[in-house]
Amino acid sequence: MLPVVYSDYKIAEQIVEDPSTAPIPNLHKAMFAWVKKFTRNSWDLTASDIQTLRDVGIADSEIGVWAQFAAAQSVFVMMGDGGGVTLDDGNEVGAVVGRDRPTYNQAEGGLLASAPGSAGNTVNAAENMVAWIVTDEACADFQPAAVWAKKRYGFVPNLLKSISSDPIASQNMMSAFELLEAPQSETLSPRQHALVRALVSDLNRCAYSAVTTRALLQQFKDGDGLYEKVTGPWNPDDWNQNDRLVLSFAIKTARNAYKIVESDAQEFRDAGLGDEGYVDVLNTVALQTAYDRMANSLGVVADDSPVLTVKLSAA
Amino acid sequence: MGYIRVINEDEATGTVAEDYTYLAESYGTLFGFAKTPNVYRTSSLIPSYFRYGTLLNRFITNNGKKPAEGGPLPRVLVNFGVAAFSACFY
Questions:
Q1: Whose CB has fewer CB within 10 Å in chain A, the N or C terminal residue?
Q2: Are B80 and A3 within 8 A, CB to CB?
């Protein structure tokens, strides 16, 4: 839903076509340029993109907030497309930028750019910094999150530190971390859940998450080489029927969620995975993608250890 | 609605019911919506994911008190940008 900021809904079309030529303030153009990369190819964002925003007067704390808003919307987008939800009453902008519009297909280039097997960007943050933006993990509001993380993982992940200035955002991320630890339905297996996380994170070219997803897969009986198998060139014949279904849907959701159709959900029902399994995969992809994009866009330095619960690490 | 079964307000129980109440108040107060937006319903089959959607709402609305404010431009434009560049018609 486009808030009442611009005078004409047609501006929405122009922003999608090319924000640099839309009749909007330069500050808005800079934001949309950054958001476009965040959404379509977050792995291409660099420290100089952060500097570009600073140069137009955006504080590091605000950049961090934008990353969180963008991550939140990434989740909503996948829920909208994955659920095939109908527009709420009065959603005119949805009709403006909808599937029948020419601009719809312009998402192809960026969203399909990711290729399996990408190692992700190596982040070079300044010394003693956990990201390209300044963080404040010593602040009082962040301490409950820090205590929680140390108890659960044995350390405070850098991704959590990257949003240390905002207590509500910290709470969101804590919840997301917990949700990403395991499947939330009985039909998706822990192994399938871990495979989805690794595959999606690789599609997002997120070096930060690779540390964790690789370690997560090693806990399984066929764990040796499993990370390389799922992040290597995609070959459907390498997988059994249900794994193939789950992973194919994960790829579609991560790369071009707008192409999800009702038969995708029906395939889950036909395979016995049900709507619950479908929702579980959809949310796993959404959460993993949201936080991969945050890590990529803020240049979060990979942790020395995987983000695994203390119990799992000791196993 | 949509590709999958959802749990709507009239059949929700437990935390899903609690979250529907919060979301209805948030959207009703802030945006004048008559009911919870459809996008949240996708996850209604799994309470933990539905709760996460509620947490996201709390974040972008400052606990349901007001639309995203602060910063040099309306932060909700960031949301709009992500949706638009994802070709998400919703």
A1: C
A2: yes
Segment A249-270, tens digit of pLDDT: 999 999 888 888 899 999 999 9
Output the CA angle A217-A289-A259, nearest 5 degrees. 110
pLDDT at position A43: 93
DSSP state of A87: P
Tens digit of each residue's pLDDT (9 = 90 or more) over A140-181: 989 999 999 999 999 999 999 999 878 778 888 999 999 999
CA distances from B2 to A207, A271, A297, B9, B67 (A): 35, 19, 32, 16, 27
Burial class (CB in 10 A: 0-12, 13-18, 19+), A7: exposed
Supply the pLDDT for residue A5: 64
Residue of A3, A86, A93 lying closest to B74 (CB–CB): A3
- A143 Cβ partners below 8 Å, 6+ apart? none
Q: How many angstroms separate the CA of residue B78 from the nearest CA in chain A?
A: 6
With beta carbons under 8 A apart, name residues in chain B contacting A103. 87
- Residue B48 domain flag: yes
Q: Are A183 and A284 in contact (CB under 8 A)?
A: yes
Residues in B touching A39 (Cβ below 8 Å)? 81-82, 85-86
> Is B15 among the domain residues?
yes
Domains and CATH numbers, chain A: 1-315 (1.20.1290.10)
Per the structure, how many domains does chain B have?
Answer: 1
